[in-house]
Amino acid sequence: MKMTVLYHSKTGNTKQMAEVIVEGIQTVEGVEAKAFPIEAIDEAWAKESKCIILGSPTYMASVCGTIKSWLEGPCKKYNLPGKIGGAFATADYIHGGGELGIRLILDHMLVYGMLTYSGGGSYGKPVIHLGPVALKDHLEESKDTFRLYGQRMATKTLEVFN
């Protein structure tokens, strides 16, 4: 079963965390995952994926313009209705709006008929209510949470589609 992690990354932080999510996904048997920059998506892979996770750096307490533009049009060609959807963010500051960016992504996913998921508190700690956020000066400290998020998303995707 295929899963796709999409991202936009200017400094490399969001790309790095996307790759960590893929690592977590790949710990679950029966799932394949790839990460792509939003500017270079493997269209066939994304269309076949049962789950799409979208990540953005946080600018002005929201997603970057590249992600916002993708959500408002080009994303429609990826057969989104019925897929599992998830989101993550990177940010400069703890109160810089990472969760607001995640919420914007999840809102769009809901509008497109996706089944949004994060695991919430159902698995215990770490609790990931909306999606994980990594701060630029604490990427290493966030990697375990991002790996676990990938694993939880893969487990749920298998549960729903197997």
Summarize the structure.
With 162 residues, this protein is an alpha/beta fold. It has helices at residues 13-25, 43-48, 65-71, 98-111, 139-161; strands at residues 2-7, 32-37, 51-59, 62-63, 84-91, 115-116, 133-135.
Give the C-level CATH assignment: Alpha Beta
Structural class by sheet pairing and helices: alpha/beta
CATH fold group: Rossmann fold
Give the helix tally: 5
Low-confidence stretches: none
Shape: globular
Order of helices and strands: EHEHEEHEHEEH
What does the main sheet amount to? 7 strands, mixed
Number of domains: 1
Distance between the termini: 9 Å
Oligomer: single chain
SSE blueprint:
Blueprint: E1 2-7, H1 13-25, E2 32-37, H2 43-48, E3 51-59, E4 62-63, H3 65-71, E5 84-91, H4 98-111, E6 115-116, E7 133-135, H5 139-161
Parallel strand pairs: 1-2, 1-3, 3-5, 5-6, 5-7
Antiparallel strand pairs: 3-4
Helix pairs in contact: 1-5
